[in-house]
């Protein structure tokens, strides 16, 4: 018997755009990036204040495209900086909305994903979901211990793309994600390297706030003592140092661009500094993959390289040359977050997975303090 078609609206808010898609099961039937004028966005004091503006933009676009939202089975949004939660598809509820409104773990445009999904779905009496938000935390207890009792390790990474790609590759290998050990390396504006043990990311660098390899616009781990000296030198405001680490670090800091394609052109034109820095980024990513292989005790079924940087052939070859003795290296360039969100919601709508409940009382708040 043929499956009944589930039509889903998918919403992925970024800092200056909202990407939307309409999916019939796992096939995209409409996708659009709604660009928001930065001056318009700047008028809003908080991320939550942008909610009405973005909702109207989405509904007006769907209307203009002749897409009848009364035919939707669900609305799914990118989840934001919530409390740490295990991976999966979550039904949006009031507790989640409250955390997204205040930005429990910080301000991030993706906080609006769940809110927009919930508000649009409520009006239609259909369910709303978020899938694998950046705060997915499946860390093994041993991975939380930093060596500095005042600070625990935090899991913030590209969970949505890492998990979607890991599932896709597992399928291609004819295995279940839950039966494999994978090292998934997301290489975009930020870089995260996850040790996936049988479907759980038991260790990963905090790719948002400065840990792990440097990336096109983030510094990654920097020498702590020297950083402290800088912070207390009296020369910088907190925000300035934060920007140097996140946004203006990595390739931006050394070479003035976050665009790896431009850096490759600089190298072709004989720029030796560009070559050294680009090579160092690959070297640091390879070292992090080595770390993840130790976490998995060498039992690694595959290493996956994904994200925009994985389009760079020389770059992925260079990383492979350091790590291909560990396991086969599989290249899955780019990312497709709208597709990943649709697939997450579809697994629930088809009954293949149960939607998880975001309940503050039940959340695991493991710390080593
Ligand atoms: N063909 C290509 N060759 C080499 N690098 C590329 C290519 N296409 C894109 N990139 C690089 O990929 C990086 C951006 O990757 P991506 O689009 O995945 O990041 P993002 O979505 O902005 O950030 P994040 O993935 O951290 O959320 C940029 O440095 C870009 O120059
Ligand atoms: C690391 C979480 C996603 C991002 O890059 O902002």
Describe this structure in words.
- The structure is a single chain.
- The chain is of the alpha/beta class.
- The model has no long low-confidence stretch (mean pLDDT 95).
- The chain has two domains: 7-137 and 338-357, 2-Layer Sandwich (Nucleotidyltransferase, domain 5), CATH 3.30.420.40; 159-334, Nucleotidyltransferase, domain 5.
- It is globular and about 55 Å long.
- A seven-stranded mixed β-sheet has the order 3-2-1-4-6-5-12, sandwiched between helices. A five-stranded mixed β-sheet has the order 9-8-7-10-11, sandwiched between helices.
- The chain is 38% helix and 18% strand.
Bound molecules: adenosine-5'-triphosphate, butanoic acid
Domains, number: 2
List the uncertain runs. Answer: none
Order of helices and strands: EEEHHEEHHEHHEEEHHHHHEHEHE
In CATH, the topology of the largest domain is named: Nucleotidyltransferase, domain 5
Average pLDDT works out at 95
Architecture of the largest domain, CATH level 2?
2-Layer Sandwich
Subcellular location: Cytoplasm
Keywords: ATP-binding, Cytoplasm, Kinase, Nucleotide-binding, Transferase
Catalytic activity: butanoate + ATP = butanoyl phosphate + ADP
InterPro entries: Aliphatic_acid_kin_short-chain, Aliphatic_acid_kinase_CS, ATPase_NBD, Butyrate_kin
